[in-house]
Specification:
The chain contains two helices and nine strands, in the order ααβββββββββ. It is α+β, with helices and mostly antiparallel strands. The termini are far apart.
Length: 196
């Protein structure tokens, strides 16, 4: 009789991971977390830098616009810290307080966020800056606005030369201080909170 030798092959169906596969996956995910978490947390810093550049651009644009059009421009910071606007003023309006209902806003065809192409930034309406605020806006010892005259210099509401001032832009725990020098309105920016 012939001996039939049969080889039985068992197919093994795995229903899980080996220890090595699991360990490798955990290591890869840990490395990814170390790389991605700092990048994600720097979003507040990047948004804050963007908003800081934006407000400095508006300051310089208001200054140049005042010279080019030979008119007064007022940069006003909203009392609730939600943003700023640039107004067109005449000589009789320098001491007049900001009023949203009667303000004549300067044109801004590029950065307007739903305000009819005017220079008006509201953090509550602009998704780029949703977690930011303006704090400590103080000019000439008592004002939350700064006025540029036809020479590009800064003046107080009574028309006298301005003593300058500063404000802070907060983005999460990141803080930038923007200062305007007396008379000239020269702008300096310094990061004062939230790391380097």
């Amino acid at each position: 009789m012939k001996t039939i030798q049969t080889t039985i092959q068992c197919k093994v169906h795995r229903k899980g991971w080996t220890f090595i596969e699991l360990l490798t996956t955990i290591v890869i995910l840990s490395i990814a977390a170390l790389v991605l978490v700092p990048s994600a947390s720097s979003g507040a810093s990047a948004s804050g830098q963007s908003a800081t550049r934006h407000v400095v651009t508006d300051i310089l644009a208001a200054q140049m616009d005042a010279v080019a059009r030979q008119e007064f421009r007022r940069l006003h910071f909203f009392s609730d810290g939600s943003g700023w606007c640039v107004e067109v003023l005449d000589a009789t309006q320098l001491a007049t307080s900001y009023s949203a209902g009667t303000a004549l806003y300067a044109e801004d065809a590029v950065e307007s966020q739903g305000h009819n192409q005017t220079s008006y930034i509201d953090f509550n309406q602009d998704t780029r800056y949703s977690h930011m605020s303006i704090a400590s806006a103080l000019f000439d010892g008592s004002n939350t606005s700064i006025i540029f005259d036809q020479t590009g210099g800064i003046i107080a509401p009574d028309g006298s030369p301005s003593t300058g001032g500063s404000f802070e832009l907060h983005s999460s725990d990141h803080v930038w201080q923007i200062q305007l020098a007396p008379l000239t309105g020269k702008v300096t920016v310094e990061k004062i909170g939230g790391g380097s």
